[in-house]
Every structure is written in C-alpha cells, then in structure tokens.
Amino acid sequence: MKSIKKFLQMKKQQEPIVMVTAYDYPSGRYAEAAEIDLILTGDSLGMVILGYTDTLQVTLEDMIHHTRAARRGATDTFLIADMPHMSYHISIENTKINASRLIKEGRANAVKLEGGKSSRLEAIKAIVDCEIPVCAHLGLTPQSINTMGGYRIQGKEEAEYQAILQQALAIEDAGAFMLVLEGIPERLGKEITEKLCIPTIGIGAGRYTDGQVLVYHDLLGMCEFKPKFVKQYANIKDEIISSISKWKAEVKDGTFPAQENIYIPLEK
Ligand code: KIV
C-alpha cells in the first residue's frame, strides 16, 4: 500500500498520482487490480449508487457501509473516505467522532472534507490531531451546491480565484496531506499546485495538478450525463443493457438454458 510519504515523493518527482472512486467490493477489487495509486470512497455514491440528485442526502452510515465494502475489495490500497454533509459542521467533538468512525468501522486510511473557511481549518486541525490524515477539497464543492447556485466552475473571477488560492495555502498550514481541486480554471490548478508542498489531485482542474481523480462510473461509461472533464474509457452501461436483453431473448425463445448449463439434463 502506498503511503502519504510516497504521495509526497511522487509530487516531488512529478510522477502523476492516480485516484479513482470505489464504493463497493467489486469496484474496490477492480481498482486495486488496476494498481491504482489510491481510492476515494466519495459521497458521489449518493448519485451513482443510491440514485439521489445530489450528495446532500448521504449519511455517515451510508459512507461507513460503502467504505467497508470498498475496503473488502481493496485490502492493499490507500483509501480515503468522504465525510458527508453535516458530519463535520456541528462541533469539533462531533467531527472527531465521525472521522474516527470512518477509520474504525469503515477501515479507511484517511478522510476527506470540503471547503477552506476558518471553521473547516479548525475541523482539519482537530482531525489531524487525532492522527487521522485529512484530504481537503476546494473549488466546486458539491456539498455547497445550494450556496454556490448549482454545479458552477469556481474561481473564474479574480476575487474568487484569490480566495481559493488563500484557502489552499491555509489548508496546507492546517495539516492536510492532500488537496482535491474540482471545477476550477487550469491556471488556478497550476498556481495552487506550484505553491503547495502537499499533492493536489484534480477533477476538472486541468493538466497541471499532481494527480487526477475520476468517478468510477463516469470513466467506465455507466452514467447518464458526461461532464466536459470526463473521458469515458468504456461503455459498460450499454454492455450491461445489451447483455441482459440478450439473456432475456434467449429465455423467451428457449435457447437458455442450453445443455451445458443444466445439471443432469433429461434426454430429449
Ligand atoms: O465524491 C466524490 O467522488 C468526490 C470526487 C469527485 C473528488 O469528491
């Protein structure tokens, strides 16, 4: 399993860090078989697994359940679990308890939380103080869609650009070991990456971050909607639908089960 020290070394040596999301036993297993550098059990599971319209309905129990399953599939890969909305907002004590549950019950190696304002920096410090590594997340932070007014690129205007840059610097000072940058101009992703010592992982943040992350279902073509920053490497959704349809047709026309699928077939 790669360590935080290794990720820092990869940044220094300019070796791209590759992260993919995984939410259950098979996706964890396949990500590990592909020798991915690290796995994120993201709260995007609310949309791609549970069918919600956003990540806001995801609970800590959902996150623990799916993190445990992904971990069973990926026993030897560094795994980060997302802290869901309102699991790090109420109090420092509650934040520490919730982060520790993702480690103790979910068996994650680290947790991720969104945002960089002062209360978030306090949360990061408190969790790190419990010896739990924290990955931060800036830019388009999906748990803030209602305050951001939807899924909008962040940091296009100068004031917003500078605010995100300052938050990134403060996040490093607070003790985060990694920073996910989502939905920002390439120039901002590049500047943050150059100014920070900790690795940055981009999703819709251009070419200059230290690594890239994609949602499992997006990269495999299992989603309805393809954002601009996604490249699909397969079309699994169509494969699934056509395979189920073929099987259905064979049951209907009597081709399935064939001789080889039958225990002790009757003589015809
Ligand atoms: O929840 C998630 O999958 C994420 C990634 C998109 C970075 O936060």
Which range best describes the helical content: under 10%, 10-25%, 25-40%, 40-55%, 55-70% or over 70%? 40-55%
Low-confidence stretches: none
Q: What is the number of domains? A: 2
Q: How many beta-strand runs? A: 8
Q: Trace the largest sheet across and list its strands.
A: 1-2-3-4-5-6-7-8
- The CATH architecture term of the largest domain is Alpha-Beta Barrel
Instruction: State mean pLDDT (0 to 100 scale).
Output: 97
Order of helices and strands: HEHEHHEHEHEHHEHEEHH
Q: The biggest beta sheet, please?
A: 8 strands, parallel, barrel
Overall 3D shape:
elongated
Number of helices: 11
Please report the distance between the alpha carbons of the first and last residues. 56 Å
What is the strand and helix layout of this fold?
Blueprint: H1 4-12, E1 17-21, H2 25-33, E2 38-41, H3 45-48, H4 60-73, E3 78-82, H5 92-104, E4 110-114, H6 118-129, E5 134-139, H7 145-148, H8 158-174, E6 178-182, H9 186-195, E7 200-203, E8 211-214, H10 216-219, H11 236-252
Parallel strand pairs: 1-2, 1-8, 2-3, 3-4, 4-5, 5-6, 6-7, 7-8
Bound molecules: 3-methyl-2-oxobutanoic acid.
Residues 21, 40, 42-44, 82, 137, 180, 182, 203, 213, 215 line the site of 3-methyl-2-oxobutanoic acid.
